[in-house]
Amino acid sequence: MFWYHSTTKHSYNSVRTNPNRLSWEDQPSTYKNYPEHYKKRKLDLEKEEENFLYHIAGLTAKKSYPSGEYYLRINPSAGALYPNELYFQTRGVEGIEDGIYHYEVLSSSLTLLQRITDDEGLEPYFGYKTAMKGYLFLVSAIYYRSSWKYKNRAFRYCLLDAGHLLGSIEASALLKSNVVEMRYDIDREKLNLMFGFEDREWMLAGCSMAIPIEDQDVSPIEFSLPYVDGSRTFEPNPLIEQAYHETMHLESCKREVKAPEFTYYTEKLQETLFKRRSQRGFQEGAITKGQFNYIMESVHQPVLSDCDEEVSVYVVINRVLDMPLGLYKEGEYLKYGDFARKAGYLSLEQYSLSMQGAVAFFLTSKAKNYQALYQKAGIIGHRLYVASLYMGIGCSGIGAYYDDEVNAFVENDEMVLYALAIGK
Ligand SMILES: Cc1cc2nc3c(=O)[nH]c(=O)nc-3n(C[C@H](O)[C@H](O)[C@H](O)COP(=O)(O)O)c2cc1C
Fold first, then answer.
1. Residues near ligand 1 with C-beta < 6 Å?
2. Which of 30, 168, 272, 398 to mutate to test the pocket of ligand 1 (most atoms within 8 A of CB)?
3. Which atom of ligand 1 lies at the shortest distance from residue 348's CA?
4. What are the DSSP E strand ranges found in 191-323?
5. What is the pLDDT of residue 66?
6. Could you state, in order of their start, the residue ranges of all structural domains in the chain?
7. N or C: the chain end with fewer CB closer than 10 Å?
8. What pLDDT score was predicted for residue 72?
9. How far apart are CA 115 and CA 218, in angstroms?
10. 379 C-alpha to ligand 1 centroid (Å)
């Protein structure tokens, strides 16, 4: 098991001996805005391409607390800390000048960071030799936004949240009937340098929604952006820095070339993405077996990727009509019984989610490429959100669980990556 993962496990004792006191006034900013002299323009949601971009990471709700107002987004995020930033290259996209952009969440704008030419672009950093028509996305993390609260465990959340953002790209691409491919084997070192991240922000993954332009070779574009602060405050976390740097280079990657198939109606999907929220607690309502099967079909679709790592999905059936209670994996029961209370306890005693929900999930992996496997867990989690909400069923991600006790329950010794619950 990767040392970082072992040293960031939660246990019944650890969460009681390391209480976390936070002052919300010190919360790092969750927005990165490039200075005004960059060329920016607001998204026009009437335009198909810009509507597509908005449905990846746009603001969709406002919450008011005594400490201030907060905005929630299309994509979920552990603790609503939103550590990730989204960048992309466009080439040959209607209505958008060819170039490299930052998606400015706060103002729903695109910031042009760098123009590209026909024979230069980001393609080689993604492993492509020819020019690619369409979008090449990059997902980064400003880890302090999350480590401010979650300390050493935050790298896990940066990766899960990044996976959700990749899942968000996948879901929004379906509005245009497009498939996307995850690209983990990107040149992180070079990209981090060119984007001026200064080790406070890191590239985690690429994602391509583009097709090759035959006979148009491209060379790697060179540029040097200045550092732009995306968290207001910052404290280095040496453990997380080491974990990132040790997992930057991938090894023995296996490609997944089989495309996923989803059966969503565009209009209903768009409404689902726009209205998506995390359910704060379930009322012990049941779901039907048909709904469960529909959701699982979406979850088990392949993820197109240049580094596909195996992630196991364990399912605790609490309330699915016509299905026996028990622990279930890939269509087979591992054990029968009522494990609702157990699932609630394992999710750091969040009983209103994993116990009162219809189904609880635990995702594990023993694969090698930590950044790729963890982000895949986030993508799977995102598919679970989208499919459940599409069916009118609630969903919540659960990043906090008792790692070793989950292992004992599912009877494996893999890394426990994520838990989720769905229900009514
Ligand atoms: C990786 C991840 C872990 C999460 N963990 C929890 C959790 O342990 N408990 C919980 O109530 N919500 C959890 N959530 C839900 C977030 O709190 C929620 O996404 C965030 O507050 C934004 O709200 P929204 O999803 O409704 O937009 C998690 C979400 C993600 C993406």
1. 72, 76-80, 157, 160-161, 164, 277-278, 350, 396-400
2. 398
3. 8
4. 202-217, 219-220, 312-317
5. 77
6. 21-246, 277-423
7. N
8. 97
9. 14
10. 14
Q: Are 393 and 294 in contact (CB under 8 A)?
A: no
Q: What is the DSSP letter of 153?
A: G
CATH number 3.40.109.10 is the correct assignment for the domain at 277-423: yes
Using CA atoms, how far apart are residues 225 and 408, in angstroms rounded to an integer? Answer: 48
pLDDT tens per residue across span 268-307:
999 999 999 999 999 999 999 999 999 999 999 999 999 9
Q: Whose CA is nearest to atom 16 of ligand 1?
A: 78
- CA diameter of the chain: 62
pLDDT in tens, 2-18: 999 999 999 999 999 87
Mutate to test the pocket of ligand 1, among 77, 351, 354 (most ligand atoms within 8 A of CB): 77
CATH topology match: 21-246 vs 277-423: yes
How many angstroms separate the alpha carbon of residue 365 from the centre of ligand 1?
21
Sign of the CA dihedral running 353, 148, 225, 31: positive
Orientation angle between helical segments 289-299 and 370-390, nearest 10 degrees: 150
pLDDT digit string, tens, across residues 328-338: 999 999 999 99
pLDDT higher than threshold 90 for residue 69: no
Give the Å distances, CA to CA, from 275 to 79, 176, 278.
Answer: 19, 19, 10
Distance in Å, CA 45 to ligand 1 centroid: 27
Query: 131 alpha carbon to ligand 1 midpoint, in Å?
Result: 38
Q: Place 54 in a pLDDT band, splitting at 50, 70 and 90.
A: very high
Q: Which CATH superfamily is domain 21-246 in?
A: NADH Oxidase (3.40.109.10)
Report the separation in Å between the CA atom of 80 and the middle of ligand 1, taken as the mean of its atom positions: 7
Q: Report how far ligand 1's centroid is from the alpha carbon of 252 (Å).
A: 33
